[in-house]
Amino acid sequence: MARHDRNRPLDRRRYTRCLRVATGGRTARRPAADRPGRICDSSLRTLYFTRAEQTTFADAGEYAERYRKEAEQLNDVERRNRTEGAALDDFSVARISSFLKSYGEMRNGEQFVMGEVRARARERVRWGASLGLLALALLVAPMPWRRLWTRVKR
Fold first, then answer.
1. Helix (H) or strand (E) holding 54
2. Rounded to 5 degrees, what are φ and ψ at 13?
3. Is residue 75 within 8 Å of 139, Cβ to Cβ?
4. pLDDT tens-digit map of 62-99
């Protein structure tokens, strides 16, 4: 087998194999990093969430939606009072404002929980998947280490 000429550009297959090796290595190094192209559909969460993670994620989503609806109701009450001409006193406005702020913070907290549960589940799954991908890419890629391996076996 002839040696590869370093001045000649890589052909498409070799480039693709090298890219797969690099992707597997990157995923193995940083499994928690966000990969938009990977497992992005919500129906696929059942593949990588444990039962406890599914429950936590669903509960956090329900609470976040509940806080959003309650804040929306308060906004509607304030809007109705303004349009009907009945002015709210300063205490009521401050109270509504305080509730809106609290609901916003609670909703952000629930969304944080959802993000953390998702990130940890993805990280757990990516370790195994990335190492498998890396091993497969190294087996398929035409690298000099494959020739070394056959020499070691002899």
1. helix 51-84
2. -65, -45
3. no
4. 999 999 999 999 999 888 888 887 777 888 889 989 99
Dist CA 71 CA 64 (whole Å): 11
Residue 5, helix vs strand vs coil: coil
Please list, in sequence order, all residues whose beta carbon lies within 8 angstroms of the beta carbon of residue 122, skipping any fewer than 6 positions away: 31, 32, 38, 39, 48
Copy the structure tokens of residue 140.
């398929």
Q: What is the DSSP letter of 21?
A: H
14, with CB counted inside 10 A (0-12, 13-18, 19+), is middle
CA distance 51 to 75: 36
Q: Report yes or no: 77 and 96 within 8 Å, Cβ to Cβ.
A: yes
How far apart are alpha carbons 19 and 22 in whole angstroms?
5
- For the CA atoms of 72, 105, 117, 35, the dihedral, rounded to the nearest 10 degrees, stands at 80
Rounded mean pLDDT, 104-124: 92
Q: Is 28 exposed, middle or buried (0-12, 13-18, 19+ CB in 10 A)?
A: middle
d(CA 66, CA 45): 22
- Answer yes or no: is pLDDT of 11 > 90: no
Q: What share of the chain is helix, strand, coil (3-state, %, to 5)?
A: 80, 0, 20
